[in-house]
Amino acid sequence: MQSLNILVVADNTVEYLSYIKNSKFLNKLFVTYKTDEDGVFSIDFNTFQGLAEKCKALQIDIVLVNDEKWILQGIGDVMKKNHINCFAPTSFWTNLELSNEFSRSLLEKYSIKLPRKITLPVEFPVIVTTDGETKIANSIQETIQIQNTFSEASPDVAKTLFIEEFIEGEKVSLTSLFDGKNLATFNNEQIPRELIVDYSKKLKEMLYKEGKSFIGFINSDFILRGNILYNTGFSFKFDMPNTKLDLLYILQLAIYQKLDELNF
Fold first, then answer.
1. For residues 181 and 256, what is the distance between their CA atoms, to the nearest angstrom?
2. 155 lies in the same domain as 178
């Protein structure tokens, strides 16, 4: 394992910075916000391409993106085009967060459980959702009111609107890391291990078989009811995973597509 130059792309200091600073694999640490912290170097950028050029000049080995707005704006595509190891999905995969239709079609294809879509609700509450917004309705009148509010926002919003069943249960989440070939899903004590293993297997199959490779973290949100995980959404912001392993060790395995060697 080599010593690494790491860049954290964020607006402000992040909690996991200490995990990077304490890694035995760290050479130099750069951030994209102003800082006086010892051993941390600040850089700025105006465009993703400009940032990519700075990464080349500074010999950055790994870029971690903490700011989700930049992820959704396509930083992963630009870094990948410039052959920089950036832990962020490409635009194709950000649609899992941005588009309900895209997400549902893929999850159904790979047998990942979702709340059921409803054409005409007869039991309440129900969930009225569009791309980017979700509301609970407790009656047919409230359902219509919310639908009208969404529809009046814009024609594009109206096209993404649908109703789904309301599921009572515990809100839980999982953090996974994909290396373009292998997937590592980190433990969550709230979720039975067998459910984590089953979900991770399906998610890996989906990410790999769709053929749009990337390296990065993917956070899955669920409702846990009984022994079933109902997926309710995704996000891609990097948060420190639940592990005692050296973070930079994990990231190095990922850039060489060796996450299958991880032992939790």
1. 10
2. no
